[in-house]
Amino acid sequence: MPRYSISHLMQLEAESIHVMREVAAEFERPVMLYSVGKDSSVMLHLARKAFYPQKLPFPLMHVDTGYKFEEMYDFRRRMAEEYEADLIVYRNEEAIAEGANPYDLGTQRCCGLLKTQALLDGLREGRFDAALGGARREEEKSRAKERFFSFRDRFGQWDPKNQRPELWNLYNCRVGQEESIRVFPLSNWTELDIWMYIHRENIPVVPLYFAREREVVVRGEQLIPVEGQARVLPGETPRSMVCRFRTLGCSPCTGAVKSSANSVEEIIEEMMVERISERSTRIIDHDQEGSMELKKREGYF
Amino acid sequence: MTDIQTFLKQNEDKELLRFSTAGSVDDGKSTLIGRLLADSKNIYEDHLASLKELSRKDEAPDLALLLDGLKAEREQGITIDVAYRYFSTPRRKFIIADTPGHEQYTRNMATGASGANLAIVLVDARNGVLTQTRRHAFITSLLGIQHLVVAVNKMDMVDFSEAVFDEIRRVFLDYAAKLNVSDIRLVPVSALLGDNVVEKSGRMPWYHGQTVLDILEDVQFLTDRNLVDLRFPVQYVIRPHQNARYYAGSVLSGVVRPGDEVLIMPGQNRTRVKSVSSFDGDLEEAYPPMSVSLQLEDEVDVSRGDMIVHPKNLPHVDRRFEAMMVWMGEAPMDPSRHYLIKQTTQTARVSIDHVDYRIDVDTLHKVDVSRLALNDIGRVALTSNRPLFHDAYQNNRLTGSFILVDYLTNHTVAAGMIIDRLPEDRVPMDVDAGSEPRASTSKRASLVNPDRRIARYGQKPCTIWITGLVGSGKSAVTFGLEEALYEEGYSVVVLDSSVVRSGLSRDLGFSAADQAENLRRVAECARVLNDAGLIVVASFISPSAEGRRQVAERIGTDRYVEVFVDASLDWCRKHDTTGCYAKSDRGLLRNLAGVDYPYEKPRDPAVKVASETDPVDRSVSRVVAVLKEKGYLLTIPPAP
Questions:
Q1: What is the ipTM of this complex?
Q2: How far apart are the first and last CA of chain B?
Q3: Which domains does chain B have, with CATH numbers?
């Protein structure tokens, strides 16, 4: 490449680091939402780069539903140690104690209680004025209009009609009491960028992304793993299949894809051939046309 | 190497081009983008499948539906905000800022264009160059985009006619001659059928130029960067341990290397760059848009908002500047108010001196106005309370740009692009309220030594600065304190608004600049009285922390004692004897602290008085006790 040129990955990296430093400089109580997935892995790595050689200037918060895969809990423990991060795990204990689950409540209500509600409660309890999240604009249509710095009123709600204009690299970080800002440093990254960067920087990710034999049931077009608290519905027969996960959520609601890719390189190769967008394996997004937008208005990430 | 390794190698080194698109509702902008994505094989299959369900007709999928993100917009059938789209080809990655063409959404167009290297403007071949086309081209030029592609769409509706295209080209270039865009290209396309978007059209053999995608892949935009003037605003100070400081930030322009001699603005300290650091190790150099951190040779005082530059290449340092502004707030500009300005990593307070003119974007004529309203573009002169380090936007997009924030609502209300400053004689001769205060310890010719004054009066002079809302009970404390000190034998003077406004500041009004000047005069006055050995009790609302800081510096921070008289707004309203709140409610009074002007509570006052619960005499004794504790009040021998 010619002198002073800069690759797209390096540009994305520079932009994300700029955003994170702005958050650390301008807010009193920032927090980084850590969901254990690949985007969180990249975000954590970028945060380390942004503040090196200092430790992260904000805690991590994992909104835990109790329905995550075992591998995710193991990985979370490992990462918190490796990054010497202050990790907050927040759960809606009340709903969990009452046995909230997607089978009886439906995915919408279950997500509402265990994710959105828990997130809002967690943010309020920590009195956080900024929450960094790993969402990307490419993921879903309603996210395409999201700002890097997305204002939330004191109920955590998003108003897509009334967003602050965002120009150059100048971010308006002002909030009133109890209001907050969700910040998305990975806004401009695509799924391919994420994997290319994981490859380039050798970033650790949860082993669930790599293919191996798993017990699954076929539900609609989804492969649902029979692990943890996942239920086998009447008429379904578990069978063994080589598969992997493209996104990670709760075990009952995250579908696997048939795949034999078990390295980052093979995953990238597969992406170039398979052209199915990643969130199609998330059950919640399909419930209703525009469901992500509804959830986001209510306070979901 | 395997295929995938070759692929990875190639794709890691891709360039990133950001471009914006603008067009009217029916120009087919979304279809054009959809076509770019589809023909460059970037639409994922399931997206296509869900589109087929959504499209009204069962024919070809409506590519435009890909782009209309939000539900409300989908129902209205229009795009109303900036949406970002991503695609890549083997040569480049692209980020599209897709902005609406509606007249009332100039705001969004400017937003999308602010980060772009190139802009695509859509023209409907049937309609030719419209008002909105001119508007789009003007905003492109205003935002400093050097490459403009005019996609003349719907060529299929005009029989792919060369004459139609040529006429549009003639009209457009005629208009664009007045703009400041160096690279303009017109391309005849049919987004619907795909002609000249990705694939060259066989139906327009008369067109010999490149397709839209070819232009996007070929355009040389890296040379648009400024690699000459080093501008490194400090964003964040990293302190891994006691003795190490890393100054983190983005290189906005220029190149920085270890060993470079640098100047730190505004302190004007000179030192050298010890290292250009990153997580991946020290770097030989850093250039835009890299985010790095710098270590300096010497221990100098550097904080967020400072700017590291080369000593022989300085930005403008000024409190006054002129800018082209796009007003984005729902409420029009209020020239009598303060706004917050964010420029590089600095946030300051700014007042509007005057509006030169508004531009009629359709004719490029200048219109006389006194303020800007939503979606207006105009030239404005501003004054900030602190010097800003800036360059003309034309030379440097990131040091020449700023946003204004309304700090009552926290909305971003304007975007600005600084223009080369006017000659000094045209700068408004308003008061110099924010200039650096003269130190109180300056050499004095007086033969009376301060110690002799202390001995005579039995007091070390100081200024008790009483701040709080109208009606909070400042006056009661002020005059109570005056009397208490007098009774104990001390020499004390009261300064308050009624004293100052009726004489010393009778020429001043209540604009932000005038209020700042009023406080400056009060502070000067207090300083002189303190120098003469007297204690001053000054009672002023003084709502801004920055304003109080300047007062303290002017008087001398060692002689400044802050007393915060605190009471809720409701309580103040009830106890107000001035009628200010009633006037404000009827719209007769503006900028009233606590109502339509923010009151920034002192963070660390020497005494905090809670008027709602504390009796005045108790509060007064507390202040006296603190003054004694701090050593201002010496024990006075009983009067002879």
A1: 0.89
A2: 103
A3: 3-224 (3.40.50.300), 232-309 (2.40.30.10), 317-421 (2.40.30.10), 450-629 (3.40.50.300)
